[in-house]
Amino acid sequence: MAPVITEEIPLAPLTALGLGGPARFYADIGNAADLRFALRWADERALPIFILGGGSNLVVADEGFPGLVLRMRSRGMVWSESGDETLVDVQAGQPWDEVVGGAIRHKAAGIECLSGIPGSAGAAPVQNIGAYGQEVGDVIRRVRVLDRRTYEEDDLDRDACAFAYRDSLFRRDPGRYVILSVSLRLVSGGPPCLAYEELATALRRYVDPSLPQVRDMVLLLRRRKSMLLEEKDENRRSVGSFFKNPIVAGQAADALAGRAAAEGLLAAPQDMPRFPLADGRVKLAAGWLIERAGLAKGLRMGAVGISSKHALALVHHGGGTTAELVRLAVHVRTAVRDRFGITLVPEPVFVGLDWPA
Questions:
Q1: CB under 8 Å to 316, separation ≥6 — which residues?
Q2: Staple partner for 25: which of 68, 78, 287, 301, CB 3.0–4.6 Å?
Q3: Model-level pTM?
Q4: What is the 3-state secondary structure (H, E, C) of the chain?
């Protein structure tokens, strides 16, 4: 049976921000056959297409989307063992945190630090989601896709997905593939990842933290930062981190730390948050830069503002517009650029509008 295609469906309720106008056309997609039908239907009418997952990382235009929005609704996880590995094939519409919970139940390490990240499994490779020292791209075995040029299914291995920091082939070429399922390779009985200092410090009372203990602590840390989608949280309407942590050359990071110390923003240059990378570059903390640029947590600009718990999250407090949110984001970008000479780049996907240059 072909999927039902409806008109003028509000998108705001399907997003974490609760902002944006309607989809001109909309359909729920349960399998590859549904997807082929809907893609052909849109192509015959020369309509743009957008693939919607959990809606947790989207900024939708106030005018909505002028084409066909397809929401991936397929569910299911198939677990298996192979030597010292735990393998799982996950349908695109499966909520991501349920995948992490399943890994913990199977005593499999590799994604425990990605607990509490909202959205669907099919969206995880697009953003190459990451947190607390882990990235999903590190454990992806293959991604099952439908090629929009041929309407045929294909398997892309990890290398073909070209993962990078909050980036992938799917984000760089959004019109080519639709993700149907994701296959992960985890470590059976493996130790949890404690590479991130904040997490390791929070767990120091445990001699040998277990996977469930790490998951629980990650959820607690995210809750303290309003990074969980919880109805009672005043900061709940956000996309999480709105900006990527900037990556700069080592010398540039040293110069910035020295300047910040000289200007009294730090007691000493070594106190600046920084995360050295294997290639010699350094990842900086965007939230730290935002606050040191004079933008405090809890700042309000009408119906939008900066989270009261985390400077990297921009929040919709209700009754606002996407235009207001974008103005706030540009204000934050400008403040950091003027103060430090670093241009922040947004993390979310923009639907029906472009990020201002």
A1: 17, 18, 19, 237, 238, 303, 304, 325
A2: 68
A3: 0.93
A4: CCCCCEEEEECHHHCCCCCCCEEEEEEEECCHHHHHHHHHHHHHCCCCEEEECCCCCEEECCCCEEEEEEEECCCCEEEEEECCEEEEEEECCCEHHHHHHHHHHCCEECCHHHCCCCCEHHHHHHHCCEECCEEHHHCEEEEEEEECCCCEEEEEECCCCCCECCECHHHHCCCCEEEEEEEEEEEECCCCCCCCHHHHHHCCCCCCCCHHHHHHHHHHHHHHCCCCCCCCCCCCCECCCCECCCEECHHHHHHHHHHHHHCCCCCCHHHCCEEECCCCCEEECHHHHHHHCCCCCCCEECCEEECCCCCCCEEECCCCCHHHHHHHHHHHHHHHHHHHCCCCCECCEEECCCCCC
How large is the average pLDDT for residues 179-208? 96
Per-residue 3-state assignment (H helix, E strand, C coil) for 247-312: EECHHHHHHHHHHHHHCCCCCCHHHCCEEECCCCCEEECHHHHHHHCCCCCCCEECCEEECCCCCC
Choose which CATH entry (3.30.870.10, 3.30.465.10, 2.30.110.10, 1.10.357.10) describes domain 77-224: 3.30.465.10
Q: Is there a common fold for 77-224 and 247-351?
A: no
Q: Which fold has domain 247-351?
A: 3.90.78
Residues recognised as catalytic: 166, 241, 347
Domain boundaries, the chain: 6-72, 77-224, 247-351
Does domain 6-72 correspond to CATH entry 2.60.120.10? no
Q: What is the pLDDT of residues 135-166, one digit of tens each?
A: 999 999 999 999 999 999 999 999 999 999 99
